[in-house]
Structures are given as C-alpha cells and as structure tokens.
Amino acid sequence: MKKREAQNEKLMYEIAQENKRLSEPLARSLKEVETLRGALAAYDKDKASLAAAKARLAAAEKRIKALEWEGEVLTQRLAAASDERDALRAKFESGVYDVVQRSGLKSMVLEKRVAALSGALELKEAQLGEVLAAAHLDPATLQQARVRAAVRAGAGRALVSGRLEEVLSVKNATIRALQADVAKVSKAHNDLIRVYEAKLAQFGVPPEELGFRPLVTTTALGPAGLVSGQ
Fold first, then answer.
1. Locate the Growth arrest-specific protein domain: which residues (predicted)?
2. Domain enclosing residue 187, as ranges
C-alpha cells in the first residue's frame, strides 16, 4: 500500500514537473498570440487608414484634373474675351474717329457757310456805303430824303422799305438757322466725345494709347453776323 502511494506520489511529481515544463512555452505562446492579435489589429487599422487615404488621394487627383480643365476653359474664354474686347475697341475707336472727322468736317462747312454769308452781307453794305458816298449823301441827308419821299410817295416808300426789311429778315433768319445748325453739330460732337471717353474708361483704356486727342469744339449759338436794316 505504501509502495503504491509512493509510486503515485512519484507519478504526480513527474506530472507536475511535466506540466511545469509545458506551461512555460504555453504562456510564451499565449503571450505571442496576444502580441500577434495586437499587431493584426494595428495592421487592420493601418490598412483601413491607407484605404481611406488612397480614396482621398483619388478624389483630390480627380478634383485637380477638374480644376485644371476648368482653368483651361477659363483661359480660353479669357483669351476669346480679350480678342473680342480688342476687336470691339478697334471698331469703336474707328467708328468714333470717323464720326469725329465727319462732325468736324460738317462743323467746318457750316461755319464757312455762315462766314461766307456774313461776308456777302458785309460786301453789300460796303457797296451801299460806296453808292451813298459817290452820291455825296450822308446818313442825315438820306434820312431827310426818305422823309420827303415818304411824304410824296407814301405807300410806295412803305412798300420798298418793307421789301428791304423782309430781305434782311430772311437773311438774318438764314444766319440764325446756320448758327443753330453749327451749335447742334458742335453739341453732338462734344456729346460723342464724352461718350467715347466714358467707354474708354469703362474698358480701362487710357486715352493716351489712341495716339490722338479728340478736339472739343467751342462753337456757340449767338447773335454775331446778323444784319441790321438801319
């Protein structure tokens, strides 16, 4: 009985030693398993982060390509708009220059017509003065003659005087009309220059770039050049 107990104790001891011998590798293995599980979790996390980063990178690259395409389109539009602006500017400048030239020419023609008509009237007055001088008549004598003629001729003198006043009135009306035309053309010319300068400012074009300066006229409507019947 004692022998059997001794054998059992020996067996138990051997089993305990074997368990002890096997438990240490098992503990190490379990620890390694936990370490590997942590590494696997970290790997999965890193893998997910990498996938998300790749997705963000792909989206960013796609957005960059879209922005590059939009930038190219905007560049082409800007170039087209610049070409159109330059064409419009050239057309506008050409049109304004033509209008300015035509307006200036018309103003000069009208002013010459007024000057010619005024000169003709002055010539007639000078000729009348020469006739009076040749006849040795002064204004007082002429006035007395007119009074005597009026007494003698009555309605005849009134008719001649009325005709003279009518002619002078027509001439003066013609001069006024021509002066009014000159004033209107000058005003239209100046208004056009103001519009032209406003358009240049709107397009950001300095007037100095045109190479010429539009002339602002100062012709005004006035009583100069009218003929008096006295």
1. 1-146
2. 92-210
